[in-house]
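haha ok so turns out i had the wrong file open the whole time. this is the CORRECT one, sorry everyone. sequence first:
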Amino acid sequence: MGKIKVIISNRQKQVKIPTGVRMLIRRCCHAVLQMEEFPDAAEISVTFVDNEQIREMNRQYREKDAVTDVLSFPMGEEGHYDVNHETGAKILGDIVLSVPRAMEQAGMYGHSLEREIGYLTAHSMLHLLGYDHENGGLARVRMREKEELVMSQLGLPASSSYTDA
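then structure:
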C-alpha cells in the first residue's frame, strides 16, 4: 500500500473536536484501505460540518431535505480515480461528517463519539471505494460486516446495546 494522505478540516463551531479524533480518522482510512488491499497511494478529504451545512449539501447533491450523519463524494468509478500529478496519489474523494449528528447518534446507540465517528468514516471510505448499500440485501450486509471488522481492528467494537436502525 502506498502513502495515504488524509486532509481534515473543521467547518463547524458547535462541537469541540475531541483530542485524538483526527488520528482516529486517519487510522480508520488506513484500516479500510488495508482491508481492501488498495495498492496505491491515496488522498482523502474529511470535512467536519454542522447539521445545517450537511442538510444543505444533502438537499443540493441528493435532493433530500434532511439532516444526515455523513456524505460521501467518490472521485472514482469502478476502480479508476483522478490522480494528484504532484504526488501520484489516487484521489479517492471527500467525506463530509456532521459532528452534532454524530454526537446525537452516539448517545442514541449508547457508545462513544469516537466509535460513531470511526464507524461513519469506515462507512464513507467504503462508499469512496465503490460499495453501496442503498438497495439493501447482500450488498448492505457485506458493507456492514466490513465496517464492523474495521471497528474491531481499531479497538472500537459494537457494544451489546448497539442496534442497526
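Residues 160-165 have pLDDT under 50 and may be disordered.
again sry for the mixup
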